[in-house]
Glutamine--tRNA ligase (Aggregatimonas sangjinii), 561 residues
Amino acid sequence: MGEEAKSLNFLEHIIEDDLKTGFSKDKLRFRFPPEPNGYLHIGHASSICLNFGLGLRYGAPVNLRFDDTNPAKEEQEFVDAIKRDVEWLGYEWDTERYASDYFQQLYDWAVLLIKEGKAYVDSQSSEEMAKQKGSPTTEGSESPYRNRSVSENLELFEGMKAGKFEEGAHVLRAKIDMTSSNMLMRDPIMYRILHRAHHRTNTDWCIYPMYDWTHGESDYIEQVSHSFCTLEFAMHRELYNWFLDQVYDADKVRPKQREFARRNLSHTVVSKRKLAKLVEEGIVDGWDDPRMSTISGLRRRGYTPESIRNFADTIGIAKRDNLIDVSLLEFQIRDHLNKIAPRVHGVLDPLKLVITNYPENGEEWLDAENNPEDASAGSRKVPFSREIYIEKEDFREEANKKFFRLKLGKEVRLKNAYIIKAESCTKDTEGNIIEVQCTYDPKSKSGSGTEESLRKVKGTLHWVSIQHALKAEIRVYDRLFTDESPDTHKDKDFMEFINKDSLEVTTGYVEPHLKDAQMGDKVQFQRIGYFCVDPDTTSDRLVFNKTVGLRDSWAKIQQHD
């Protein structure tokens, strides 16, 4: 019991304390409340894992509720993408809800507040309201419209709803305290006029509720017991509670807002506004570009739901914002793919190698293990012939003793095949090596059990048979930003840190059985890294995205900079 208690995060302790003091477990309900104004990112993944994880831990329902109160920025595309992401992560919501489901109830409550003298229509400009709101060190001053009569406020608010006024002509404000030390309590706006079609209610409404008015009341309507949000909403909690006070019925569950720290990921941004800018300015090829920190981008790059859930579990829940190194996320996907991804041969920077003593029209199919980490993965046949491709970097005419790959006069083993010896090489007019001539030991076939096959050589190379190889487009991704925290510089725009070399597209060659590879399939190109079949793949065009290398090469690069 003691160990279990230690493993609880502080939000779970809050729930446990509530249960100990009489809150009924069957009244627990959580929610994940995205605004459908963009695709979800890795920060949202932590929130999804938190709320749905709590639902699983306590056997409690979790609502998926879209806070769709701003038709100027929200689209059905984003609703669909969010649902797809949550499902892909492996979670099921109890009910699908929308803040727009509650527009009439929210309006009715707003009318009630007007009648009770707790809300009024303000006709100032936004500039005037900002000025009279004061500052953190100076008190605000009351609006000249603050003491309008109830009847006038009701008439104006009804006119706002009926579309009689232009945008910006009026707003509805809660009448709280213009001298409060919490500026959010200084008569916050509850409604504004927006003559925009809504993705669900179309043009039924031309006034839309603000987030602070909508969120807590929606929690209350849904009887959410614990409303968890990130730290930037800590100052909003007082207003959340004030609004609840106006409608709360003691016979119902009163939602409790608590805050946890945002997890920022290094070398990227986790702001929908900034991610949208990357899309709009063509820096990336859409919200699902594999360089993006969106869940859709990570999925397209080859990340698995398990790796993201493990990442969220590893970083945990904290009370302070902090920056998480992206290498921790990469460790999780590398660890998972190591267990599940079949090993295949793929050459990204080909150099032709001719085995001069192999029969000219010879061909054989060799056994290759699919995954040494998974005995049940079985094996496959790979073709071998006289002419093969190896990586250019795997050959040097001359090299020191620490170079364990192919060099003139020395031997290496070809993975799943034979031991070969480099005899000579051919160069072009500029001195570039274009072909290596080798000989092979016919008795050294891997797995044959001969004395020659058991002979130890220090280097092992991957390869593909030229006559059998499939051409593939290979997309190699790097960090999208050169700075680990690009959006925290007060004197610079985050766009200044864009890594111009974040994508390199090359032509590689892969073994022939990959012709049947399907979108999303994941493989390890041996000695190179993990790759995923991109949705751009067609029957005559194979496209692979590099998910992650076999090792954290970025850390090594940074050490040498």
Remarks:
- The CA atoms of residues 197 and 203 lie 5 Å apart.
- The chain has three domains: 103-211, 265-342+470-560, 346-462.
- The chain is about 25% helix and 25% strand.
